[in-house]
Backbone:
């Protein structure tokens, strides 16, 4: 009958549709597996990945080495990787055969404005709550904070509220350099001792004070930091002859100002002074001044 013919035709069409879906799914699965094999076979990005200057990002998410023109992939770090990294850094700093002596704490310092404080709080999340020894509220705004990890035994993480380019950060750098010059021993749980890694950055508060227009003020301030940062970074070497490729005693990372989401509402006028078109010249000043200095610049 006509109805039976119609049903048989519909059944055939349904089977063809299911077959097409199956073949398409199989095709996509093969593509995914091939892409996975390609990702696994790619080497890991290594040289210069911190400043990103030696790589360009491709549309497929891979990175292309500018020098070697070879694709690579970023490594996704786990908690285990972080623990191994910190243990390795501590071993390098301390003599493994001197376990009986008090170990020098590996000091990671964050110094700057609220952007740096956010990085500090994010880093603390790597440490379990039960392994955070702190006498200060780490979430307090506009205040210094220290945290010691008893489990690691020699990990000290500190934050210094230093929002101005020519403010107390100058005193910190001079004091740290003086401690190194005099060979003063590290005191227990003291964040006054020079850091092994320093993450630093400030811009927005200077923009507020200068109403965002005095780039020369900021430029002079950043230039004034360079010799102090280099003295801290290359302390055991001749700073005059030190090159950015030399092995550094300490790692210093300058964090540029984030791009903002402009919201022109009543917040005391700050949003009329700080917005993304004014931020870019400040970031460009930092990039130009720190280029070739050995100081890593992150965006």
Residues:
């Amino acid at each position: 009958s006509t109805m039976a013919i119609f049903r048989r035709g519909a059944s055939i069409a349904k089977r063809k549709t299911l077959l097409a879906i199956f073949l398409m799914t199989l095709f996509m699965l093969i593509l995914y597996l091939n892409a996975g094999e390609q990702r696994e076979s790619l080497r890991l990005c290594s040289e210069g990945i911190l400043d990103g200057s030696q790589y360009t990002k491709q549309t497929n998410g891979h990175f292309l080495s500018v020098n070697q023109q070879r694709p690579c992939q970023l490594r996704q770090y786990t908690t285990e990787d972080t623990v191994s990294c910190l243990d390795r850094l501590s071993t390098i700093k301390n003599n493994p055969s001197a376990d009986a002596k008090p170990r020098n704490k590996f000091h990671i310092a964050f110094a700057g404005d609220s952007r740096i404080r956010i990085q500090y709080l994010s880093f603390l999340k790597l440490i379990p709550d039960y392994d955070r020894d702190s006498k200060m509220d780490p979430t307090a705004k506009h205040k210094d904070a220290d945290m010691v990890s008893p489990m690691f035994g020699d990990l000290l993480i500190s934050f210094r509220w230093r929002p101005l380019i020519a403010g107390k950060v100058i005193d910190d750098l001079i004091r740290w350099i003086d401690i190194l010059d005099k060979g003063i021993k590290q005191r227990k749980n003291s964040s006054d001792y020079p850091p092994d890694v320093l993450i630093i950055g400030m811009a927005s508060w200077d923009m507020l004070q200068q109403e965002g227009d005095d780039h020369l003020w900021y430029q002079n301030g950043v230039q004034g930091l360079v010799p102090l940062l280099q003295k801290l970074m290359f302390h055991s070497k001749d700073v005059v002859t030190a090159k950015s490729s030399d092995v550094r005693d300490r790692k210093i990372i300058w964090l540029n100002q984030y791009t903002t989401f402009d919201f022109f509402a009543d917040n005391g006028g700050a949003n009329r002074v700080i917005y993304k078109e004014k931020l870019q010249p400040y970031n460009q000043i930092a990039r130009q001044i720190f280029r070739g200095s050995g100081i890593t610049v992150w965006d």
About this structure: The chain has seven helices and ten strands. Residues 2-41 form the longest helix (40 residues).
